[in-house]
Amino acid sequence: MPELPEMENYRRLLNQRIADHVITDVQINREKSINVKPELFINSVLHQKVTTVDRRAKHLLFHLQNGQVLLLHLMLGGWMFYGTEEEKPKRTIQIRLSFGYQHLYFIGLRLGYLHLYNENAVQQELSDLGPEPLESSFTLEAFLKLMDHKRGKIKAKLLDQGFIAGIGNCYSDEICYHSGILPTREIQEIRDEEKSHLFDSMKNVLTDALNHGGYLENPFFIGDTKTGSYNQFCKVYDREKQPCFRCRTPIEKTTIASRKSFFCPVCQK
């Protein structure tokens, strides 16, 4: 599932390509991927200029000139491609937004969605989300305050979008590895010094992943060599039985909050 670095990478690429461009055609192949009747969706979106694309947690917000907002959540397996009809992947397309001869394809939206809201409604929809971990206003002091009196396993809490927004299965494991903390550790057992390391690791891992385009496999456009390049830098995620880069101990896998979780039994305490 795309997480904060993947969606922020998409946001930057989309603003380069479709901001201030007019949607010239709308194609909906799967009605379950939208939240209103196709006719209303098309009438609200067609011939509208995309003023900007924002991100909140794992969501993207396509702001239209008429004040409407398209709220995207890719969920598990969702991704996007931008290009011509000849360049598009040989995959099932759930939704297509056209910008002249270039098109934005939404692929794999079996669980994901592209919903239509007004500005007030979309803010209400996102009101339960926690703080953005890469915002400068999210300081160590704010993080420690959030951690006060929390209970449960640290990995499960990092996955909680109401606690901190945008971290998912991959980066929760990578953050725990970077900080040297086992994902199974109970929050109330983690010392303040370790919490400080965890905070620094969160900033470092997410920034590094963003700089490398996240871990998604599929390029956003023909010739895109950045998107997905963080795959080669993952230290523990999806590396079961492979040697730890620090101590060469085989990476182990367990299940936390119904999610597969990877860790080094030696480097993480």
TrEMBL record:
Stretches assigned to the Formamidopyrimidine-DNA glycosylase catalytic domain: 2-112
Pfam family, one: H2TH
InterPro entries hit by this protein: FPG_cat, FPG_Glyclase, FPG_N, H2TH_FPG, Ribosomal_uS13-like_H2TH, Znf_DNA_glyclase/AP_lyase, Znf_FPG/IleRS
Entry's family note: Belongs to the FPG family.
Gene from which this protein is expressed: mutM
Tagged with keyword Amino-acid biosynthesis: no
Needed co-factor(s): Zn(2+)
Domain spans labelled FPG-type: 235-269
Subunit structure: Monomer.
Reaction catalysed by this enzyme: Hydrolysis of DNA containing ring-opened 7-methylguanine residues, releasing 2,6-diamino-4-hydroxy-5-(N-methyl)formamidopyrimidine; 2'-deoxyribonucleotide-(2'-deoxyribose 5'-phosphate)-2'-deoxyribonucleotide-DNA = a 3'-end 2'-deoxyribonucleotide-(2,3-dehydro-2,3-deoxyribose 5'-phosphate)-DNA + a 5'-end 5'-phospho-2'-deoxyribonucleoside-DNA + H(+)
EC number: 3.2.2.23, 4.2.99.18
GO-annotated molecular function: 8-oxo-7,8-dihydroguanine DNA N-glycosylase activity; class I DNA-(apurinic or apyrimidinic site) endonuclease activity; damaged DNA binding; double-stranded DNA binding; zinc ion binding
GO terms of biological process kind: base-excision repair
NCBIfam families reported for this sequence: fpg, PRK01103.1
Name of this protein: Formamidopyrimidine-DNA glycosylase
Organism: Bacillus salipaludis
Keywords: DNA damage, DNA repair, DNA-binding, Glycosidase, Hydrolase, Lyase, Metal-binding, Multifunctional enzyme, Zinc, Zinc-finger
